[in-house]
């Protein structure tokens, strides 16, 4: 006896399952949660964006505009076209200030980079003490004005402890900040003393990314520390070193406060760096249009140097990996 099924089994047409799976899925629409995340991100970005526009972008655009005008704060800006730039090209003090700035940058960057690299390698190879790293960073926590004043007292020709020591050793006192020959190297070394610890820690962070097994393999092959430094450390540290060089060069070209509190551009304009000359033109002689033109020229010079450094040092590529 057979029992008939009350409802026949349903069958899908051949290929029906495949067609069901092959149907395009509906596009995901932005949910309220995603929109909320975007608004929250915009809320967090807004203060930094506002600061960038108010304190960087707008002053830059305003300065570029003023570089084509004659402006002294007392009268409305008067459009003069390229007159300020023509004056700048024919200004011997501008070119002298630019040369003094370049001299400062060469001394500062050369000494600071070598010293910072040596300190970073010693920190990485000999000790990992956080306290020692803190001591190395201590001068950087001091402002440039305070550092300049301290060294001004130390190097004073008559009463400074530095010259007292030199005199006690039987040598003649050295007018470090009052002599045209000594002034710029002295200011450069003061800033080296203040910034070398920070630069060393940046390089130390780059050294931490180099795998330790590479040094172990080199030791097994009989490589000396000096050979490992040139064959392993320097090639793998190159991208970090390139970025550090770009940062320090830009900062060095903007030296101002150390000069202002130690020599005020003297003696005989021997330390009249470009930033100090721009400041004197704007706030000393109220020639804001001409000062803006020199600022724009400095911006162009720094942009060109940065691009050149980036390309020559291949800062965007690494030999690791």
Walkthrough of the structure:
With 321 residues, the chain is mainly alpha-helical. Helix content is 69%, strand content 1%. It has 13 helices and two strands, in the order ααββααααααααααα. Helix 3 packs across helix 13 and helix 12 runs antiparallel to helix 13.
Distance between the termini: 78 Å
Low-confidence stretches: 1-20
Order of helices and strands: HHEEHHHHHHHHHHH
Please report which band the strand proportion falls in: under 5%, 5-15%, 15-25%, 25-35%, 35-45% or over 45%. Answer: under 5%
* Quaternary structure classification: single chain
Shape: globular
Enumerate how many helices there are, as a single number: 13
Return the structural class.
Answer: mainly alpha
Radius of gyration: 31 Å
What descriptive keywords fit this protein?
321 residues; mainly alpha; two-stranded antiparallel ribbon; 1% strand; disordered N terminus
Write the layout of secondary structure elements.
Layout: H1 16-22, H2 32-66, E1 69-70, E2 78-79, H3 83-89, H4 92-125, H5 130-137, H6 144-154, H7 161-168, H8 180-208, H9 212-220, H10 225-253, H11 257-262, H12 274-284, H13 288-313
Helix pairs in contact: 2-13, 3-13, 4-8, 4-10, 5-8, 6-8, 8-10, 10-13, 12-13
How would you briefly describe this protein structure?
By secondary structure, the protein is mainly α. 69% of the residues lie in helices and 1% in strands.
């Amino acid at each position: 006896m057979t029992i008939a099924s009350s409802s026949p089994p349903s069958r899908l047409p051949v290929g029906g399952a495949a067609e069901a799976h092959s149907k395009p899925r509906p596009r995901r629409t932005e949910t309220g949660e995603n929109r909320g995340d975007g608004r929250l991100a915009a809320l967090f970005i807004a203060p930094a964006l506002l600061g960038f526009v108010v304190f960087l972008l707008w002053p830059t655009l305003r300065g570029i505009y003023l570089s084509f005008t004659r402006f002294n704060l007392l009268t409305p800006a008067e459009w003069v076209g390229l007159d300020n730039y023509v004056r700048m090209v024919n200004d011997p003090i501008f070119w002298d200030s630019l040369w003094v700035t370049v001299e400062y940058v060469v001394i500062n960057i050369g000494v600071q980079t070598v010293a910072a690299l040596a300190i970073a390698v010693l920190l990485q190879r000999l000790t990992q003490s956080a306290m020692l790293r803190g001591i190395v960073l201590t001068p950087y926590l001091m402002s440039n004005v305070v550092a300049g004043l301290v060294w001004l007292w130390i190097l004073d020709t008559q009463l400074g402890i530095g010259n007292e020591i030199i005199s006690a050793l039987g040598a003649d006192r050295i007018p470090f900040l009052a002599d045209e020959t000594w002034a710029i190297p002295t200011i450069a070394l003061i800033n080296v003393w203040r910034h070398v610890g920070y630069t060393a820690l940046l390089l130390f962070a780059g050294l931490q990314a180099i795998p330790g097994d590479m040094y172990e393999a080199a030791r097994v092959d009989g490589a000396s520390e000096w050979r490992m430094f040139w064959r392993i450390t320097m090639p793998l540290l190159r991208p970090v070193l390139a970025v550090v060089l770009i940062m320090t060069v830009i900062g060095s070209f903007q030296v101002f406060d150390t000069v202002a509190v130690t020599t005020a551009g003297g003696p005989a304009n021997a330390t009249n760096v470009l930033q100090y000359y721009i400041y004197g033109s704007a706030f000393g002689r109220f020639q804001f249009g001409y000062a803006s033109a020199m600022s724009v020229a400095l911006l162009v010079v720094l942009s060109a140097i940065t691009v050149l450094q980036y390309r020559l040092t291949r800062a965007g590529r690494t030999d690791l990996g």
